[in-house]
Design goal:
Elements lengths: L3 H16 L1 H4 L10 E3 L4 E4 L4 E2 L8 E4 L5 E6 L4 E2 L5 E3 L4 E9 L2 E10 L5 E7 L6 E5 L5 H4 L2 E3 L1 H11 L2 H7 L6 H7 L5 E7 L7 E3 L3 E3 L1
Parallel strand pairs: 4-12
Antiparallel strand pairs: 1-2, 2-15, 3-14, 4-13, 5-8, 6-7, 8-9, 9-10, 10-14, 11-13
């Protein structure tokens, strides 16, 4: 599911860029400052550059605080140099994983996939997402899970605590099974899960410079 409002806003930005690029481009946060080396014609996007991303398959992502889950995100708009050159085209994929870190969960990017399956490594990360939600034994988790992509460990934990085993049956794609996790949660009355808004929480910051090939 693609978010409607962010896409409308991005469409407006692109229209503005086509009308008044000399004014708007320097103010757009997705614009990268690029250095071009004449000998190799290699473009460098410096570390610290922000790259917007979104997830088009769910409105939110629910994982356990200690869960690692593979995830593929997309770049919603063209990332341009200050001269207007497209550096990362809209629709490019960012492959990586959600993983636990101090204070919460974080997306770590590993590979950038352009059109025609052109690939290259990328070293970038999101902010740390620390927002958690508590689910108690016997409660109804529908409000938390509605429109969500659920990590396998989170699905198993929620099923164990709430008694709704259909969650585990339908959502577990791999990783720890219901039986194993159920034993760990035996006697527990509640579980905390990390709830991520993938269209605002996962925007990336380059940890090292990105040399485009």
């Amino acid at each position: 599911m693609s978010p409607s409002h962010p896409h409308q806003a991005r469409t407006t930005i692109l229209l503005l860029l086509s009308l008044v690029p000399s004014v708007t481009l320097p103010l757009v946060t997705t614009t990268a400052t690029a250095q071009t080396f004449s000998q190799s014609r290699q473009v460098i996007i410096p570390s610290g550059t922000s790259i917007p991303v979104f997830y088009d398959k769910a409105e939110k992502i629910v994982v356990m605080p200690n869960e690692t889950m593979p995830l593929t995100l997309k770049v919603p708009v063209n990332v341009r140099s200050r001269r207007g050159t497209i550096l990362i085209p809209a629709g490019s994929q960012v492959i990586g994983q959600l993983q636990p870190t101090e204070g919460g969960s974080q997306f770590v990017a590993q590979e950038l996939v352009f059109y025609r399956d052109k690939r290259q490594p990328i070293n970038a990360e999101s902010q740390v997402i620390s927002k958690t939600q508590e689910i108690r034994r016997g409660s109804n988790a529908t409000s938390i899970l509605k429109g969500a992509a659920i990590g396998g460990a989170a699905a198993a934990a929620i099923a164990t605590i709430t008694g709704d085993h259909a969650i585990a049956t339908e959502e577990i794609l791999g990783g720890v099974g219901l039986g194993a996790l159920g034993g760990l949660l035996l006697g527990h009355k509640k579980v905390e899960v990390v709830v991520i808004n993938p269209n605002t929480d996962l925007n990336l910051t380059l940890r090292t410079q990105l040399a485009l090939r």
